[in-house]
Amino acid sequence: MATLLHRLGLGSVRHKAIVMVVWLVALIGLGVGAATLSGTTVNTFEIPGQESTVALKLLRERFGAASAGASAQVVFEAPAGGKITDQANAAQVAATVEKLGKLPGVLSATNPLNPQAPTVSRDQSTAYSTVSYGVQNSEITVEEREALTAVVEEARSGGLTVEARGDATQESGADIGGTGEILGVVVALVVLAVTYGSLVLAGMNLLTALVGVAIGALGITTLSGFVDLQSTTPILAVMLGLAVGIDYALFIVTRHRQELRRGLPPAEAAALAVGTAGSAVVTAGLTVVIALAGLSVAGIPFLTEMGLAAAATIVVAVLVAITLLPAFLGALGMRALPKKARSHPAGAPVRDRGFFRGWAGMVTGRRVISLALAVIALAVIAIPFFSLRTTLIQKAADGSSAAKADAIIAERFGPGFAGPLLVLVDGSGAPAYAATVQQKVQTLPGVAVVAAPQPNQAQNAALITIIPTSGPEDAATLDLVHSIRDDVADGPDAKVYVTGTTAVSIDVSEKLDQALPRYLILVVGLAFILLVLVFRSLLVPVVGVLGFLLTIGAALGATVAVFQWGWLSALVNAQTTGPLLSLAPIIIVGILFGLAMDYQVFLVSRMHEAHAHGAAPRDAVVTGFKQAAPVVVAAATIMFSVFAGFVPEGNDTIKPIAFALAIGILFDAIVVRMILVPAAIALLGRSAWWLPRWLGWLPVVDVEGAALEREAPARRDTPDTVHAS
């Protein structure tokens, strides 16, 4: 692989103009495609084959689009001491309901004071109207939402408290390009400028990463016109693509400058950097791609789609790093070095990295204490992980109209009214059997209200609405769903389904919770095999895998403490606290796995190289650490700033994921790679690099391109190389 990448890098330098034009054409072409072919994203999560999903499809067929379309509940509350049924208040409610029913996209708006089907609280202080749309939430336009909001705001002028909640009020897209994200990019630019000592080189590094991200994002946007993509897919791809794109370029540019300092001409230095550091980049990128594509093991289509889209962005980032980046480096020439080093690069002084040498000496000198402190610290931070709860129901931001409506509903009607369950009785015998189902459900614990069955016009289905005594996120509601499914049997010519937003959330969350252990085993197994191949050792991979598990535990533990428990939530501008999004843990595991392996390979390979050259065990750790740690710290700082940039102003879906990735990178780079790994390898001594004889057949994976490095002096003076420079 190193030889092939060396040739690719040299070819990119020789034909730099063509390479740049090809990438520019790709960028423009996808930009045109995104502008003309893009579609809308969705934020509905369904799993084909699940009972709740099958029932939703049947619901649409039996009762029409309105039964399974998006809806909003407009809540009316009378002033303190008054009743919503008072003549003046009732007139205002009726006038507002009439306006709601005429809004664009609305199929119907129920009158809460209708004697036939009232939705009024027991104390008669509150009522709510259900506004039904004929399409899913993702298909409701911005203008239609604004029209609903305008009617609600106008209704408040009459003295009533009027708020709106429901999926029809929730925007389906994820915002990209806030000030937080821009700040993250600015921090990355500053770190690069400090690392290189050159603003031009830092800008080039950032530019190539942005090109890769733009191509990936535009490709996903274009794809949205052909398939339904989740609203979190583009933002996840941008966040991950930007972080790894900057880091991959950093690894290659750093190696390029090292080769220039050794006296190689720019063309050969760029080619050798692609062949050596580029090999590690390709290996790391492949690991991330496999981890993201491996999300398909969950068997959940929307998760598979998110993983593949993000993986495609990583592929683009790797291709940019090994083709476009060397082309830019070739054009930059000796300007990649500081001015003082350009005349005599071979004699240019190289910083001694005294801090990192001293740090490595301290950690390896007190390896038992260092190892114990690192493990204990991460283990303590991971404790909240065992209280992790997940849901698909997005809680409204504190202070929003939806949050106020939720609070009024819970207080006046009961918490279960915010997440009713729907029981669909389907079949020719459904209308007759539905009454039996209603009676059985009424006897179950956790049921507050069971509405009378509503048959459809064809008399082949009936719908029963159930109001639990608990909220949609409570464990008691989960138990009720299982009780209905276990205790209410199908009848003659009638099949019973439990569905609704709450049931869908429960089904998807359970499916994801079941998939997480399988996925964790997959990525841990992959990590172990990869590290065995790279380092031809058994104990070093064990250290790497255990460090990764501690990183995952600490990242998820901190995320639970902040976003579920509410600790220090104001610091991250968390609009709400509660269970995490169901798909968050498995996505966090996949991404952190790839990034952790990236740092592990880059750091430990230098230690392995020093050991192979005859250095004593502890000296090999110190030498390798001194060489690789500065780049790992810079890369982690950049990746942390990029991920953290999505936290302050990110939407409620992406914010916890971005926080977990940012804090996970911090724990992995600083605690695991800077303390735990060097301490553990120093403690193991020579046995760290032991490989049983019966595994001697394993192929040698030269991720650092050692063979190319040995051949460099011979190539340096060849006519072909001189011509290339």
UniProtKB/TrEMBL annotation:
Q: How does it sit in the membrane?
A: Multi-pass membrane protein
Decide whether keyword Hydrolase is in the record. Answer: no
Domain SSD stretches: 182-331
| Signal peptide (residue range) | none
Keywords assigned by UniProt? Cell membrane, Membrane, Transmembrane, Transmembrane helix
Organism domain of life = Bacteria
One Pfam family this sequence matches: MMPL
The primary location reported for this protein is: membrane
Q: Which residues cross the membrane?
A: 17-37, 182-202, 209-227, 233-253, 274-302, 308-332, 368-386, 516-535, 542-567, 579-597, 628-647, 659-684
Family statement: Belongs to the resistance-nodulation-cell division (RND) (TC 2.A.6) family. MmpL subfamily.
Q: What is this protein called?
A: Membrane protein
- Highest lineage ranks of the organism? Bacteria, Bacillati, Actinomycetota, Actinomycetes, Micromonosporales
